[in-house]
């Protein structure tokens, strides 16, 4: 595909003095409310998820960043490539193609962290991947956009939202750091905070779903191709991320984590970049894609969580109903932990301690047959 944006009608320069259409005014008002509410809830959410992070495990991921490297490869290697292949496959218009490509080049979103928690994933790896992908986006976003738009006749200037990236890092690192400190000092209280965070995460997803439904009301029949791409794009990201993690011999826990991180993009960052780079008339044409992507990635996450919970319950019932008679006999023969520890200590003293009670005395000790032979000789 060759996107031609050289004409002024296709890609006009962004003008801040241009009057906004009525539809976009509604988008702007709801966006302000959505941004404030989501920022507060994400801060609380990341603080609560930070309470599940252990310093030693987090440091282990930093010292041996194999899982983080696989996640970054999925985020900035596979996702932009998938976006480019979707653009070619559906023969998108230049403006639509730019929206899909920008979404593919965005870093991972914080929505993946709560889904990782719900599927018993590696929270330390999830938060590390989200942080590292956001930092890497400072350089990888311009690089990926430049490489994939190089064959195009693109005269439209794309503005990277560095300020938005910095705000995302602040909202991510500071609450997580406080959560890690709370988990280190007060581990019992951190469990209560985790439950509050789960409720906050559910409310956040509800806000995202309702906002997406309201903003997309009356536009489900328009741009059906973009809606289809917004549905299959995160699904492909989840599948490809899981397969790559599996091929690199990651654990099942890490495979689930990398899968969720790969398909979950920072929709708010994409939305900000589109606002900075395109005019109001152009935004009306492509804004539904970003909103639909955010909505569908939340729905995909709920489906993955539901599938995992069903699999976990089925596996638990399978092991619980397997040979109950053998389990009962095994429980009768088993000893308590204190008895087992005492038994091991006695054996260690009998076999390893030096002196008269060592192994030599065991071999030289008199036996009943020796006593009988001595009595006969007498």
The computed structural class is: mainly alpha
Helix content: over 70%
| Euclidean distance between termini CA atoms | 111 Å
What percentage of the residues does DSSP assign to strands (E)? under 5%
The arrangement of helices and strands along the chain is HHHHHHHHHHHHHHHH
Number of strands: 0
State the low-pLDDT regions, or none. 1-24, 330-365
- Most strands sheet: none
What is the 3D shape?
Answer: globular
Number of helices: 16
Region (Disordered): 318-338, 350-378
Main location: membrane
Biased composition (Basic residues): 318-335
Subcellular location: Membrane
Can you describe this structure?
With 378 residues, the chain is mostly helical. Helices cover 78% and strands 0% of the residues. It has 16 helices and no strands. It is globular. It starts with 21 loop residues before the first helix and ends with a helix. 38% of the residues are buried. Keywords: Membrane, Symport, Transmembrane, Transmembrane helix, Transport. It is found in: Membrane.
């Amino acid at each position: 595909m060759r996107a031609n944006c050289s004409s002024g009608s296709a890609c006009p320069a962004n003008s801040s003095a241009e009057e906004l259409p009525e539809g976009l005014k509604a988008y702007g008002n709801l966006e302000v409310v959505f941004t404030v509410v989501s920022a507060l809830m994400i801060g609380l959410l990341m603080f609560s998820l930070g309470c599940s992070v252990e310093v030693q495990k987090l440091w282990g991921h930093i010292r041996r960043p194999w899982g983080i490297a696989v996640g970054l490869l999925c985020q900035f290697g596979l996702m932009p490539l998938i976006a480019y292949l979707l653009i070619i496959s559906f023969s998108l218009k230049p403006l639509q193609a730019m929206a899909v490509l920008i979404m593919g080049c965005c870093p991972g979103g914080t929505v993946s962290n709560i889904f990782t928690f719900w599927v018993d994933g590696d929270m330390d790896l999830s938060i590390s991947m989200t942080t590292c992908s956001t930092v890497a986006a400072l350089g990888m976003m311009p690089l990926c956009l430049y490489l994939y738009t190089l064959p195009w006749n693109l005269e439209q200037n794309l503005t990277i939202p560095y300020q938005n990236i910095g705000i995302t890092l602040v909202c991510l690192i500071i609450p997580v750091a406080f959560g890690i400190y709370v988990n280190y000092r007060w581990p019992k209280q951190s469990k209560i905070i985790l439950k509050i965070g789960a409720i906050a995460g559910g409310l956040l997803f509800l806000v995202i779903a309702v906002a997406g439904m309201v903003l997309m009301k009356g536009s489900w029949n328009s741009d059906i191709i973009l809606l289809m791409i917004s549905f299959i794009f995160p699904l492909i990201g989840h599948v490809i991320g899981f397969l790559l993690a599996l091929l690199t011999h990651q654990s099942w826990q890490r495979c689930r984590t990398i899968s969720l991180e790969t398909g979950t993009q920072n929709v708010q960052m994409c939305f900000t970049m589109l606002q900075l780079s395109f005019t109001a008339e152009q935004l009306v044409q492509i804004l539904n894609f970003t909103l639909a992507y955010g909505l569908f990635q939340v729905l995909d996450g709920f489906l993955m969580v539901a599938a995992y919970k069903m699999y976990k319950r089925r596996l638990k019932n399978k092991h619980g109903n397997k040979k109950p008679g053998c389990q009962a006999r095994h429980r009768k023969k088993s000893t308590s932990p204190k008895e087992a520890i005492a038994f091991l200590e006695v054996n260690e003293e009998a076999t390893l301690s030096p002196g008269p009670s060592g192994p030599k005395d065991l071999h030289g000790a008199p036996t009943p047959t020796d006593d009988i032979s001595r009595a006969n000789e007498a």
